Amino acid sequence: MSDWFKRAVVYQVYPKSFQDGNGDGMGDLRGVISRLDYIRQLGADVIWLNPIYEHSGVDGGYDIRDYRRIAPEFGTMEDFEELLERAHERGIRIIMDLVVNHTSTEHVWFQESRRDKTNDKRHFYVWREGFEGGEPNRLRSVFSGSAWKRDEATGEYYLHMFADDQADLNWHEPRVREGVYEMMRWWLDKGIDGFRMDVINMVGKPENVLLSDGGPGGDVCNGPTEHEYLREMNHKVLSRYDIMTVGETGGVTTADALRYASLDGSELDMVFQFEHMGVDDEIGPDGALTKWSTARLDLVKLKRILARWQNDLHGKAWNSLYWSNHDQPRVVSRFGCDADEASRVRSAKMLGACLHMMQGTPYIYQGEELGMTNYPFAAIEESRDVEAINAYGELVLERGTFSPEHMMACIRRKGRDNARTPMQWTAGRNAGFTTGTPWMAVNPNFERINAEAQASDPDSVLSFYKRLIALRRELPVVTDGDFALLMEDDAQVFAYIRNDGKTRLKAVCNFSGEEAALEGEAVSCGERLLGNYPDEGDADRLRAWECRIELERA
Ligand code: TEU
Ligand code: CA
Fold it and tell me: What is the distance between the alpha carbons of residues 225 and 143, in angstroms, rounded to a whole number?
């Protein structure tokens, strides 16, 4: 069993917003090809490509119509094969998004399934009778409203945990699993290097949350058959290739992850956990926890969560490390500070240092390495994202839970569209993203924040990320060492020591715009490897957003 995933650094490309190659305003595969050298120079050696398959245009490609075809706006299969070849020439592997919890309702399986109750593919999806003239139960979609939709043809309801157009597959039907495995082999035989598996811990849905009993429904994640299916997939597909896998698994605990991401290789290589993405969620007016909040992070909570993931998995399972992706706001705006240029640059570097010196495989979301920021959305009409649009509809228009102003403030802070504005390459027209009209507005700060300016600036966020990646490659302790959190209860400082028995590596980070005192082992003493101020500063104090990485050799 290979373990290159432990030393990999992944760069996430959201193709629609990365680079347009033909001037139609949308990013595409030729655009990605043209930027491979940028990714190589950064030092990343794996690309996670968000979905590029034929889709129905509802949820950014997560509504797949045909798993074996490339959506025309992204290019052709020849373009994809060329991308794979050019990436491999540069020592870059490519992992693809695998979206198999659901398909588009336009997928041929669903088209057949909906036709009549006796159709051969009826059980490929989750169909239930209504309860007392309404939905089978009160299970809710992640994108607001009921998770059930009545279908005219048979009068029954199908399950959709996301948008109406994303019908959940029924993994309890063996032919669904076989169909998925066959499709996975088809891609792996083309030479791709693995998968990022969309909401994969939703596939083993417990039957009791899907009853037509008018009840509350319940949690569909981490159900009883989940591990059985992943082991089957591993046995029949994954274990036969030299690949890397990462499962997107909301709601997992470290105990769950010890099974999903065990180092014994029986399921997946690692998972994306979401606990640390919840540190700025809030109890909403209806008493339920919601992402729609304007709260700042609680650093003590964040530290405890990440330290627990570091310690519980050490030596037994493998962590993924991420601050952002296409579903999250920009981390510098969220956990750092984008109010002024000095704070933005410092806090973006500090966040990078804090994450990249931990144990696990780091994921960099496009533009994070530039310290790209959230977008100043003023009105809901500027949103493209089905999640935000549906939530606005429900919370503002239908229920009046939030005022329009408050909801827009939440969307500016937490909305997924913040991550999806075009990549900022240059200070030129449309930030160098397209020669046409961009499908989504470019952040107005592109003249100040762009890759071209940062590439030639040794003090840029980009140059700092290159150093972080290089450090990971130079120092085995970053991959192998254990983890000890320092100053656990401090509300400003995130400090820890990594130790592999030969080397002690220390990262000390100030998560605030004010000076912070260092205590105990956090006080500077070793050889300074990297920092975000030009001079060393005081050993026992950190300046605003300051970070230091230090080394002690045994
Ligand atoms: O996301 C799954 C998911 O539940 C969350 O990431 C969710 O989108 C987010 O927390 C909302 O606040 C995956 C994909 O990454 C996402 O882009 C898709 O919309 C979703 O699945 C459905 O395929
Ligand atoms: Ca294009």
Answer: 25
